[in-house]
């Protein structure tokens, strides 16, 4: 079946990422979304929470229109709520899980899904940390499972990291890539060639975070000032250009080669001195208390209004990324 | 003299950063900008190049209006071209250098500037790598010099890292911070508390770049796909939120503390496995050839039209950062 054909998508686990994923899939007219979660008040929770993810970017329409949108999705059969995994998976073309980040849970759920879902269904895990090759251990057909790792919030953020296990079939990788690349999709799937802890996006984020924690620990800068630095320079730069393209530009006509030659002594000095702090264990974790304290003091807890503003801003950045100028 | 008073700013070194800095200072009505550079065709070069930095964001006005803007700045005396360092500095309230990144050059230029400029003038260096404490060695009054490190292009990018040496006077640090914080300024100066190689912005950038080079070397991802990943996730996230604020949000009600607890095993695994590649020396530099080749193939050299589009996009991101929604 082609990725552009009507799909029946079963979502397992409807926490924040799951709700956002439901909103993502429901923006397509030809999907039916089956949802399953083990929380006892699941239906009420969904009716209360999903409207926030379907909210029209135009705030004047308010959340009333989103609530009635959920009711109409249910009454038209495009959104179906399940209390049993088996019935949720019975007719699926795609099963996607956003359950707990726990290897035993993942292995057990895929074993169950495999016996409940049609033999052709695609299996996607939204994990941020557990490779498909580890999750598929108890499956009979190991070619069906792959990681589709979203960035929060997936209904707005364009990236999906598609990370196959060595045993995943290339056709299933291509199906997932095409599904998120269909005309009208605002998403940008990227296939990662090898399984590696943290995949690519979080490895890059955590590399920067480690140095950020070190700089706060050493009192070079406060947590809030470091955030200002990032927002006033690298954030907008990397929203418009990747890191390699930025340095290709930075080197002028000589490109990244000239850039690396010009900056090499500062760069090597920085690389040699990067902070080797830890997040686990007893050594190198002195930064934690300072970072947590300064971050809490700077930001507290976000109000729903602040969250909405941040989502609108994120949408603006993403719109600007694809705008063509001077026409 | 207060930072909001009329300033006479002398710029030494009018390469790309210097031209952009001239454009930045000239957007204020009460500045007179003196420019000095040793290239023999300096005046012709300036007349040809500066219009690109003064270009109105509205492309319909075209570059003709920018060229005539430069002519009118010169005839009104707001922009003054010098062929001698001494006359360029003679009446300055601020002297800012963007010369070669070479310690001997910087030490020698500040010694000359100190004897040519009024005793009250502020001395700013736009260096990205040479600390003020090293540059000031041959100066009589070491309290006057500090780093004002811009991000490219400074006439658009909001960040200025202000990095004093231990001997720089706090009043001179505050003057620079206030100058770039005046009402109407689109800039965001941040004072760094300790001199450290790469300051903060480039340390964060180089920490991420090192891992990016490692991932390309290991064939986990191509240079172009890595750039797509960054632009489709971390770029727009960090344009809207710093890294600490993002994880404060990511942890929900428990904030960054809860986030670190939840993600700690993946994070530590990633930190333990970050690539230790080098940019200098013979070991760990295998990535270079691959990264340069893939980057050249992906991007080539930017056309002037592409550069203009990228600058417009950057302006859009920066405008979105300060927009208020829902009003």
From TrEMBL, chains A, B:
Segments crossing the lipid bilayer: none
Recorded superkingdom: Eukaryota
Every 3-hydroxyacyl-CoA dehydrogenase NAD binding domain range: 9-192
InterPro entries reported for this sequence: 3-OHacyl-CoA_DH, 3-OHacyl-CoA_DH_NAD-bd, 3HC_DH_C, 6-PGluconate_DH-like_C_sf, 6PGD_dom2, NAD(P)-bd_dom_sf
Localization in the cell: Cytoplasm
Annotated 3-hydroxyacyl-CoA dehydrogenase C-terminal domain residues: 198-269
Main enzyme class: oxidoreductase
EC number: 1.1.1.45
Subunit structure: Homodimer.
Family: Belongs to the 3-hydroxyacyl-CoA dehydrogenase family.
Designated name of the protein: L-gulonate 3-dehydrogenase
Species annotation: Aspergillus lucknowensis
Lineage: Eukaryota, Fungi, Dikarya, Ascomycota, Pezizomycotina
């Amino acid at each position: 079946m082609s990725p552009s054909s009507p799909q029946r998508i079963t979502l397992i686990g409807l926490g924040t990422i799951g709700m956002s994923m439901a909103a993502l899939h429901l923006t397509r007219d030809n999907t039916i979304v089956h949802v399953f979660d083990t929380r006892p008040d699941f239906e009420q929770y969904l009716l209360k929470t999903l409207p926030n993810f379907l909210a029209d970017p135009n705030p004047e329409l308010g959340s009333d229109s989103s609530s009635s949108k959920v009711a109409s999705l249910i009454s038209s059969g495009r959104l179906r709520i399940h209390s049993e995994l088996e019935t949720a998976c019975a007719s699926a073309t795609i099963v996607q899980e956003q359950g707990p980040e726990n290897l035993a849970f993942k292995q057990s759920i895929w074993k169950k899904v495999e016996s409940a879902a049609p033999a052709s269904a695609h299996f996607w895990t939204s994990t941020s940390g557990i490779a498909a090759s580890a999750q598929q251990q108890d499956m009979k057909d190991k070619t069906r499972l792959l990681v589709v790792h979203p960035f929060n919030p997936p209904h707005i953020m364009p990236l999906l990291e598609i990370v196959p296990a060595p045993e995943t079939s290339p056709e299933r990788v291509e199906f997932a890539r095409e599904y998120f690349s269909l005309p009208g999709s605002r998403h940008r799937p990227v296939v990662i060639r090898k399984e590696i802890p943290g995949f690519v996006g979080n490895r890059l984020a955590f590399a920067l975070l480690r140095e950020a924690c070190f700089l706060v620990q050493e009192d070079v800068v406060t947590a809030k000032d470091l955030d200002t630095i990032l927002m006033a320079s690298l954030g907008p730069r990397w929203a418009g250009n990747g890191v390699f393209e930025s340095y290709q530009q930075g080197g002028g006509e000589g490109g990244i080669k000239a850039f690396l030659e010009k900056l090499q002594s500062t760069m090597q000095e920085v690389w040699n001195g990067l902070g080797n702090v830890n997040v686990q264990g007893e050594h190198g974790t002195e930064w934690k208390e300072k970072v947590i304290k300064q971050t809490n003091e700077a930001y507290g807890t976000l109000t729903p209004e602040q969250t909405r503003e941040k989502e609108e801003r994120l949408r603006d950045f993403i719109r600007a990324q694809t705008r063509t100028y001077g026409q």
